[in-house]
Design goal:
The complex is a heterodimer of chains A (102) and B (209). Chain A has 102 residues and is mainly alpha-helical. Helix content of chain A is 69%, strand content 0%. Chain A is flat and about 55 Å long. Chain B has one domain (16-206): Cytochrome c oxidase, subunit III, four-helix bundle (Four Helix Bundle (Hemerythrin (Met), subunit A)). Chain B is mostly helical and 209 residues long. The longest helix of chain B is centred in the C-terminal third of the chain and has 37 residues, at 137-173. The chains are: A mainly alpha (102), B mainly alpha (209). The interface between A and B is large, with 48 and 49 residues.
């Protein structure tokens, strides 16, 4: 990283993401949208929800990492997001345990 | 490189903590995750209980409209992300143009949504309609969730538009500039969250059949 004179605050140097990088990510997002629409026409049975959610998660990762700059921020941000996602995953798991065994 | 520090310095003792500001914004976004997350759990449980009826109900939605709106929203995320690069490079008019483009795309999304809802209302598919109450319970639940979740999402789109319009004004007046643009970053973060929610709403409601 760029740590010149003020070693205490490396975040003062903003990370500039190029327009081309953004465009490429956008292109990937559009292609993944096309893929998920195309797969919806295929009879995948119970896999349909799994593939749809997997593609949606990949798209979310791209938005989080690049558009929302998670990749270039302090590691604490990543930890925050992880904790939030794990909390939400626990909610889902507990709810489904309730319904699966009720 | 370190334009943040360099340009803040001449103003003297203005203490700014951009990382702290962004962290606050992220924390707020987590509350949004729980708000929508709760609804996604309700959706998941009802879908689990009424699988066939959810699939049947989903055939009423227009996949093409949903796909177009997805691409519109993804593109609006692109333009708002690019506006940050523009402001970092000190290109004020380009930044304003890009935020403006985001607003135009957001409006396009809402117009699409309006026609979509309008069509549903015309064919009698709205909460409590005589047409809908006679349908199986799973279909009623599907449309209840459809209206609440896409409605709450549309409300977020409107709030996001207001926030970004204010940011555009800040860029114009110079409140947001090359050396200080954390407000624009926070506004953009909110906008990307709105995009992410749609990324999940789209396959769950439109691509079931």
């Amino acid at each position: 990283m760029e740590q010149h004179d003020h070693s205490s605050s490396p975040h003062d140097a903003p990370h500039t993401v190029s327009y081309v990088t953004y465009l490429l990510i956008w292109l990937a997002l559009v292609m993944l949208t096309g893929l998920t629409v195309a797969l919806a026409g295929v009879d995948l049975g119970r896999w349909i929800i799994i593939t749809a959610l997997t593609i949606a998660s990949i798209k979310t990762m791209l938005v989080l990492e690049v558009f929302m700059h998670l990749k270039f921020e302090d590691k604490t941000f990543r930890l925050f997001v992880l904790v939030a996602c794990v909390t939400f995953a626990i909610f889902i798991t507990l709810t489904f345990f309730d319904y699966a065994f009720a | 490189m370190s334009s943040h520090a360099a340009e803040a310095a001449p103003h003297g003792h203005t203490h700014r903590d951009d990382v702290g500001s962004k962290m606050g914004m992220w924390l707020f976004l987590f509350t949004e995750l729980i708000l929508f997350g709760g609804m996604f759990i309700v959706y998941a449980v009802y879908r689990y209980m009424h699988q066939a009826e959810f699939h049947l109900a989903a055939t009423e939605l227009d996949r093409l409209v949903g796909t177009v709106n997805t691409i519109v929203l993804l593109t609006s995320s692109l333009t708002v992300a690019m506006s940050i690069t523009a402001i970092q490079e000190g290109k004020k008019s380009l930044a304003m143009f890009l935020v403006g483009m985001t607003l135009v795309l957001a409006l396009a999304f809402l117009v699409n949504k309006y026609f979509e809802w309008d069509h549903k209302f015309t064919v009698g598919l709205y909460p409590g309609s005589p047409e809908l109450v006679n349908k199986p319970q799973g279909v009623v639940l599907y449309f209840g969730l459809y209206y609440v979740m896409t409605g709450l999402h549309a409300l977020h789109v409107i709030i996001g538009m207001v926030v970004l319009a204010v940011m555009m004004g800040f860029i114009r007046t110079g409140t947001i500039h090359k050396g200080s643009y954390v407000r624009l970053e926070a506004g953009a973060l909110y906008w990307h969250l709105v995009d992410i929610i749609w990324i999940f709403l789209f396959p769950l409601f439109y691509l079931l059949h």
